[in-house]
Amino acid sequence: MSEKLWGGRFEKSTDEMINDFQASINFDKRMYREDIEGSIAHAKMLAKQKIISAEDSEKIISGLKKILAQIEEGKFNFSVALEDIHMNIEKALTDEIGEAGGRLHTARSRNDQVALDTHLYVRKQVEEIQKLIRELQKNFVAAAKKNLRIIMPGYTHLQRAQPILFSHHLMAYFFMLQRDFERFCGVRKRADIMPLGAGALAGTTFPIDRKFVAEELNFGDIYLNSLDAVSDRDYILEFLSAASILMIHLSRLSEEIILWCSREFSFVELDDAHCTGSSMMPQKKNPDVPELIRGKTGRVIGHLMAMLTTVKALPLAYNKDLQEDKEGLFDAIDTVKFSLAVFAEIISGMKVREKNMRRAVEEDFSNATDLADYLVKKGLPFRQAHEISGKLVHHCIERGIYLKDLSLDEFKDFSDKFAEDIHHAIKPETCVNSRNSLGGTSQKQVEMQIEKAEEIFAN
After folding, report:
1. Beta 221-222 vs 268-269: how paired, if at all?
2. Cα–Cα distance between 72 and 291 in angstroms, integer?
């Protein structure tokens, strides 16, 4: 008798190279808990529907629990010859309890079984990722509170543009992560659909109760089309899409932190525990972790592209190509979870160099827009005010000074609208706190953003 559970049709054993090529056990064994959980629910349903005896169901459930303990204790030997997690567990079950083990697969196929396992696994991993997103968000809020009044340059085109609060910059990432959190809510909803009972592609002749299984496994919905149930990988595509967008956000943050750590910026310093040195240059303190996260972003995006390419031309229903859904998915999960956990530590351990940020704001022309706004409020059209401000900036550059260094008489040489209050109007604190429009960088608006974040945490 063939060791393979599908071997009855074949006279020859599978070539060893083919065994190695098509086996998925080396990566899908991580779904052992989901596979056993699904099989227990299936066994309960088979007994409830009198498709198998209650005695056989009890033997199956007891045997599966024993196998679960063996796997978690590291005492289970996974076989490449048995291809995947499903056949490894079923073979071990049959060896353990005898003939009753062979009845477990009644009214199901590996096609709907693997779909079930993957749905359960993705659903669980989404919940874990969302917890990690929340932890990172909380660290951003804590850092924003701690550094609430610190002023830094805001940038466009990587050129200093306007003064902003550092806390405002941090809260931008909070809201990016909030959108990521909400995207994963959608992923979880699409993963929360129960495929078991679809069989290989057309359902089953046995009087199964799919609602019972869905309730046992806490699914919110059930696939109503068996072809769709075994061929759907939308929830994996959605996961990889949400993961890619999240990693892009973390990559953008990585890039900024790498810049801020450089001597040229020197806005922040990372904790020694989150950096490495150089084997040759003793002075170096390298932001390797943000660099790694920036690099790993490409891997996650690559997994999304690979999965899109895999499913783009597949006919219904199941095809072996779909086995390729797991390695990229698992790697993306591991990468995202690592990146979120590490970044939470980086943000909480990061030191802010307030004096350097302040110097960068004072020794530039990021208050030029406020100079123009000042003239507009004195009655000039904005385009005329913009031109006067530009000329003043040019004048200062030629002299090697800044707007704050000009006397009132010098301001008046360019417009008689300038008055004694001009120096106050272009101070960094004034520039920041006068931007009190909804979502602006004023302290009041940032405090409102923090308050909103705390409401999100409370719900």
Report:
1. unpaired
2. 35
Cβ atoms 290, 262 nearer than 8 A = no
269-298 as b/e: b if 16+ CB within 10 A: bbeeebbeeeeeeeeeeebebbeebbebbe
* Cα–Cα distances in angstroms (integers) from residue 413 to residues 5, 104, 369, 373, 392, in the given order: 92, 91, 19, 18, 10
Single out the residue of 338, 253, 332, 333 nearest to residue 299, CA to CA. 332
State which residues of the chain have pLDDT below 70: 1-23
Place of tokens 């079923």: 90
Do residues 368 and 428 make contact, with C-beta atoms less than 8 angstroms apart?
no
CA-nearest of 204, 205, 208 to 42 is 208
CA angle 309, 332, 74 (to 5 degrees): 120
pLDDT per position as a tens digit, 246-277: 999 999 999 999 999 999 999 999 988 888 88
Place of tokens 């083919």: 18
Respond yes or no: is residue 278 known to be catalytic.
yes
- For 342-355, write each residue's pLDDT tens digit: 999 999 999 999 99
CA 308 to CA 302: how far, in whole Å?
A: 10
Which residue is catalytic, options 157, 279, 407, 437? 157
Which listed residue (2, 53, 278, 424) is catalytic?
A: 278
